[in-house]
Amino acid sequence: MWAAISELVQSVHVESINPKDPVRVFSYPDSWRCIGVGNSAAVFQPKDTPEICIKVYANNLNSSAETEAQIYRQLGVSDYFPEFFEGGQNYLVIAYRPGKNIYDCLVQGQFIPEQVLHDIDNGITYARAKGLNPCDIHAKNVIVHNDRGYLIDVSDYRKNGTCRRWDTLRQAYYDYYQELYQPGLTLPIWLLETVRKWYKAHEQAHED
What we know:
Layout: H1 2-9, E1 13-15, E2 24-27, E3 32-37, E4 41-46, E5 52-57, H2 63-75, E6 84-87, E7 91-95, E8 100-101, H3 102-108, H4 114-129, E9 142-145, E10 148-151, H5 165-180, H6 189-207
Antiparallel strand pairs: 1-2, 3-4, 4-5, 5-7, 6-7, 8-9, 9-10
């Protein structure tokens, strides 16, 4: 199966136009569906094997695939992260984690239980115990399924320094979400995108 996936990856065309924005997907096999895009890669799910997904990096970011594969190997098998199966020059094959990310939960009005935060805290502790430095944990990298939380996208777990994104998101949950949430409450995408862009600009200003 891995050889067949490797061949199909050759027909995928993903480009990063702006490193601060999601990649653009120009082509992929008809037997796959695109289930997500990030700032460096797109994720696809084969229609005949939905239990796995393939993360394909943009053409100019191929070296990141091997880095993330090494991180998955270092993590090993864990309840907090997808299982890693195979990797190639510009792609990874990992287990598909069902559910919605926190961003989509906020947009669609799905309740985010406090247990999700505890699970992510435990996942971060686990990764640190494996010698990694979990970074870039934000609303689109946390999956909620059956009232539990899971982490995806470990590509930045070898970065140096301290990343405050999860601390900020966690604090917002306790300061605002728990107080304001009512069944069916949804947040407009424009508001979330405004907050995201402001936060990234704030981060950049402190790095400069």
